[in-house]
Design goal:
The N and C termini lie far apart (about 40 Å). The protein has a domain at about 5-75. The chain contains five helices and no strands. By secondary structure, it is an all-alpha fold. The mean pLDDT is about 90. Helix content is about 50%, strand content about 0%. The chain has helices at about 5-15, 20-35, 40-50, 55-60, 65-75. Bound molecules: zinc ion. Zinc ion binds near residues 102 and 104.
Length: about 110
């Protein structure tokens, strides 16, 4: 499944805004995807044991699925994420000076 663009930008480009639990939940989703794609049972098991966070706070964030987790996190960070001053699209990173949607720039 391809991630919606704004979720990718949020979790890859605005990581410093995530709480430690949100960062772990995001990592769980990435690792689960790797596990899905991997064909070696021993490696799958290793990924599971080493990289899946099991803290109740992290599992709580993911209990109603990845879509809800993305939506809730985006909502929580509303106003803190970086947006294009012209079209208000979410920027790729918090330091971006180029809009990914309308190509507006605000370098100075
Ligand atoms: Zn724009």
């Amino acid at each position: 499944m391809e991630l919606p663009t704004q979720h990718r930008y949020l979790f890859n480009g605005h990581q410093e805004l995530l709480t430690p639990d949100e960062a772990k939940a995001w990592r769980n989703l990435q690792v689960e995807r790797l596990i899905e794609l991997c064909e070696y049972p021993a490696v799958k098991e290793l990924f599971h044991v080493r990289w899946i966070a099991r803290e109740p706070e992290v599992l709580e964030l993911l209990k109603s699925g990845s879509e809800d987790f993305y939506k809730n996190t985006l909502q929580r960070l509303d106003g803190k994420t970086k947006h294009c001053p012209k079209c208000y699209a979410l920027c790729r990173t918090s330091r971006a000076r180029l809009c990914p949607e309308c190509s507006h720039t605000w370098y100075r």
